[in-house]
Amino acid sequence: MMKNKIKTMKKLAIFDFDGTLVDSVCDVEICFDETLKLHGFPTLTHEEYLDRLGGNIDEIVSLILNDKNTTENIELVKNTYGKLYSSSPKDNTLPFPKTHEVLKALQNKGMLLAINSNRKNDSLNYYADKFFEDIDFVAIEGHNPDYPSKPCPFAVEKIRNQFNISKEETIYVGDSLTDIKTAQNAGIDCILVSWGYGRNDAYESDYPLKMIDDVCELLEIL
Fold first, then answer.
1. Taking the model in full, what pTM does it have?
2. What is the largest CA-CA distance in the chain?
């Protein structure tokens, strides 16, 4: 049963990206399908892809390849996918409805906003500039091969310490079990959104403070 109550006023909201701020899975699936076909590997269903997303690119590709996940195959698929994804138009990748307006309202209220994702930094910065140009994210922390990825709390703690924000004053907003575990490992509150790519293992967790069905609920909670 979720806790459903904020005990301390929040100063910093850290957002997951894919499935929380931006709907991106369709373009990811298109590029993975093309990559797998090129190299003679079986493609996956939508549900199977969702089950494998959430980690960094190496972890995702390893899960997609299943019992064919040798080091060589992972590198092959990862490199081809990276090239296809970079050059693809990604016309289906868009912010979830009302997300920008809510971020703007939170920013106007003085809340610090940040992004923590397992997507690569250059991609995060590109989409932050494209979709949220007037949102001043104080930090954008994506996948860095030199540092551990989510659900390790490394990036969350880096952001908090940079701005001297306590755990009690920080909240994490995400859509998946990886996000819940990230918040839990960091010792901070978590809000789970229902419109993303979360599965039953996330919805059944009792750690999140609250699960929301509409992004506007963030304005009431925070």
1. 0.93
2. 53
